Amino acid sequence: MKAAAALIFLMLILTGCLGGASESKKDSSDTASESSSKSGGKAETEQAASDNKEQALQTPSNRKIIYTADMVIEVKDFDKAYQNIQNEAQSAGGYVVSTNSNVSGEESGLNEGTMTLRIPQEKFSGFLSSMEKGAYKILQKNISGQDVTEEFVDLESRLKAKEAVEARLLEFMKGAGKTEDLLAISKDLSAVQEEIEQLKGRMKYLQNQTDLSTITIQLSETKVVVPGVNNHDLNTWEKTQKQFMNSVNALLYAGSALIIFFAGNLPVWILLLAAGGAVYYFWRKRRSD
Questions:
Q1: Number of neighbours of residue 1 by Cβ within 10 angstroms
Q2: What's residue 227's pLDDT?
Q3: 197-246 residue pLDDT tens
Q4: Cα distances (Å, whole numbers) of residue 37 to 49, 170, 195, 281
């Protein structure tokens, strides 16, 4: 009897130990699962945040800014520098709007001029960097930007409103039966359509100015010009002929003036000679007496 009770007591102890071990293992498994779940959730949250941040950085700005730049540079060869700048502008997707050049002095023979370029806005900074890295001496550089986003948004809102008015007027015109109503609606419709064209023109201009930046470059040449032997402008023989003919013409002019003077005043000379002759005659007669 005592042996049976001891056996039962031993079995109860073994059952309790096995149950505790099983619950401990289950709790440990649940804890590990919960920890793994939390770690996975945290990783997903961090990944989502990272993706959102990257997406925000990649999102282009909707601001509309007109960029302009003015540069003053010195070059050794004006024609070569002009061609290089033109090629760089074309490579960047831009073009030359206008150019003008002149010679600064006859003795120096140095060229100077101005170029106006239109460069796509996304290539604006790269083009300026290439200019700074090129074989040019940058004396001055000014960059400015004008934010026209507010004006552009305002134009868009006004355009939508005017287009809505245009649509309503077109509907009214379809339903109008009287000539007076048609004329009144047509007049209002023409005014609205004119305003719509003005708004579209202004928006197109702003869009063009923001899409393409304007760069004005003043170039001045600094190379030393060594004058050569220039005998083309001497014209020795021609100048000698000219001087000879000038001398002949001067003599002819003097002779002509003398002939005109004496021949033109012949009556005066006759009177003077007659008077002189009379005076001489009376003087000789008195002397002989």
A1: 5
A2: 57
A3: 999 999 999 999 999 999 999 998 886 555 555 656 667 788 888 888 89
A4: 18, 63, 62, 159
**Do residues 81 and 219 touch, judged by C-beta distance below 8 A?**
yes
Whether the CA torsion 51, 52, 53, 58 is positive or negative: it is positive
Mean pLDDT value of segment 257-274:
86
How distant, in Å, are the alpha carbons of 215, 224, 259 from that of 107?
31, 11, 49
- Tokens read off for 101: 């050049």
pLDDT digits (tens, 9 = 90+) for 154-191: 999 999 999 999 999 998 888 877 888 888 888 999 99
Q: Return the structure tokens found at 111.
A: 């060229």
Domain coordinates of the chain in residue numbers?
1-39, 64-223
Q: Give the pTM.
A: 0.54
User: What is the C-alpha separation between 67 and 119, in angstroms, rounded?
Assistant: 10
Q: How far apart are CA 102 and CA 137, in angstroms?
A: 20
User: Rounded mean pLDDT of 86-111?
Assistant: 84
Secondary element (H or E) of residue 193 = helix 179-211
**What local confidence, expressed as pLDDT, does residue 199 receive?**
95
Beta carbons within 8 Å of 92's beta carbon, 6+ residues apart:
119, 120, 123, 126, 127
Is the four-CA dihedral 103, 105, 109, 115 of positive or negative sign? Answer: negative
Query: Within a 10 A sphere around the Cβ of 14, how many other Cβ atoms?
Result: 9
CB-count burial class (<10 Å; 0-12, 13-18, 19+) for 252: exposed
